[in-house]
Design brief:
Elements (H helix, E strand, L loop, with lengths): L2 E9 L12 E8 L5 E5 L4 E8 L5 E3 L20 E2 L5 E2 L3 E4 L2 E4 L8 E2 L12 E5 L2 E8 L10 E9 L4 E10 L4 E2 L3 E2 L2 E2 L13 E4 L3 E2 L16 E2 L11 E2 L10 H5 L4 E5 L9 H4 L6 E7 L5 E7 L3 E5 L23 E6 L14 E2 L5 E11 L1
Antiparallel strand pairs: 1-2, 2-3, 3-4, 4-5, 6-16, 7-10, 8-9, 11-12, 12-13, 13-14, 14-28, 15-27, 17-26, 18-21, 18-23, 19-20, 19-22, 22-25, 23-24, 24-28, 25-26
């Protein structure tokens, strides 16, 4: 059984007019029987740290993060946060639902990213402990960031004695149809968050297809996306070091992304769209494994989501001070493995659907299982 402790990490400031503020930012620590631990905060429903043993039994924190909660406010990498209402990109910040057009903030080149400039990642969620789990809740108002519908969201974290971290996202719209795509944006470095580049980490993906994009990271139209990984640097069906092909300038996708920043189609996800997709595949599918030959640590990823975005931390330089005040993060010091719906799905009838109707419950699971060899 987990031991869960809570401490006040700080308080939100008052607005420029002197109103509000004073709300507690809480740091939760979940420690299992072996001493491995996960740290969370209600700011952004974020993962702050994951401390697990290497092959020699030495503990290290393998999740990138910051030393103070204020650094999580509007940080570029969205470090460890729960992102939404729509994770990833929506082309030109425009989508249609039930015959009505909605316009969202454009905050990533010409596109909308991760729910907008504030999104769910830069909100203070309500936190609570329920037995062995930590639950964060947030109610997003109708019209917030341009999205329709009042959306109630929960992010539930379970940490087991087998070093298995499960994130469950629930959502329901209380009045109007809306779109939903939730994920966690944790960055991993399996040698320790402050140990440098992850380019020697070896990645395996259970994915025969990926989504090639245009230069703004929007998936190409059918039939160009999905595309087979066969014969490309996107083929991780067998293990490859992240750095092995990341500098292949003859492959335009890697040039545009400054490395890997793409969504792969998880093998075995049920075909079809509509409500079935947004309400979730009912069983977990293997998605990925990341392994460090140096430490012997691995993390295996399973999910009910259709896609996994691999982002090799190509823009981490300039991040706020890390949990080690003597260490500053550089590009490619961490890799994110974000299980999610496909980018720009609201504008793609050929992609699994992301619309949520009143009365239905969105439920998606992401599992990170840690071990050594």
């Amino acid at each position: 059984m987990n031991e869960i402790t809570q401490q006040v990490w700080g308080f939100t400031p008052a607005s420029p007019s002197g109103e509000g503020g004073g709300e507690p930012v809480i740091l939760y620590t979940m420690t299992n029987a072996s001493g491995a631990a996960v740290q969370l905060t209600n700011y952004g429903a974020a993962i702050v740290g994951i401390t697990v043993p290497d092959r020699e039994g030495k503990m290290a924190d393998v999740a990138l993060g910051y030393d103070r909660w204020q650094s999580y406010v509007a940080d570029g990498p969205a470090m460890g946060k729960s992102v939404g209402r729509y994770a990833n990109r929506i082309a030109k910040g425009v989508f249609a639902l039930d015959g009505e057009t909605y316009r969202l903030a454009v905050n990533n080149g010409p596109n909308h990213l991760h729910g907008g400039p504030t999104g769910f990642a830069n909100r203070l969620w309500e936190g609570r402990v329920e037995g062995d789990r930590v639950v964060f809740a947030y109610r997003s108002a109708d019209g917030e960031e341009g999205y329709p519908g009042t959306l109630y969201v929960e992010a539930c974290y379970d940490w087991g004695d087998d070093n298995r971290l499960e994130i469950t996202y629930y959502a329901r719209t209380e009045d109007r149809p809306t779109i939903v795509n939730l994920t966690n944006h944790v960055y991993f470095n399996l040698d320790g968050h402050d140990s440098g580049s992850v380019l020697e980490h070896r990645l395996t993906l259970h994915a025969s297809h990926y989504l090639p994009t245009d230069e703004t990271a929007i998936p190409l139209p059918a039939p160009h996306a999905p595309a087979p990984v066969e014969g490309t640097p996107m083929d991780f069906r067998t293990p490859h070091a992240l750095g092995e092909r990341i500098g292949d300038t003859s492959f335009q996708q890697l040039v545009w992304g400054k490395g890997y920043d793409h969504c792969w189609v998880i093998d075995g996800y049920p075909t079809g769209g509509g409500a079935q997709s947004v309400l979730g595949n009912k069983s977990l599918l293997p998605a990925a494994e990341l392994y460090s030959p140096a430490s012997g640590r691995f993390v295996q990823v399973e999910t009910t989501q259709p896609g996994i975005q691999i982002y090799t931390g190509n823009w981490l330089s300039g991040s706020p001070v890390s949990k080690n005040p003597a260490y500053s993060y550089s590009d490619r010091d961490g890799v994110a493995m974000e299980c999610q719906a496909f980018p720009d799905s609201p504008n793609r009838a050929d992609f699994p659907g992301v619309a949520l109707e009143p009365g239905a419950v969105y439920e998606q699971h992401i599992v990170y299982r840690f071990g050594t060899r």
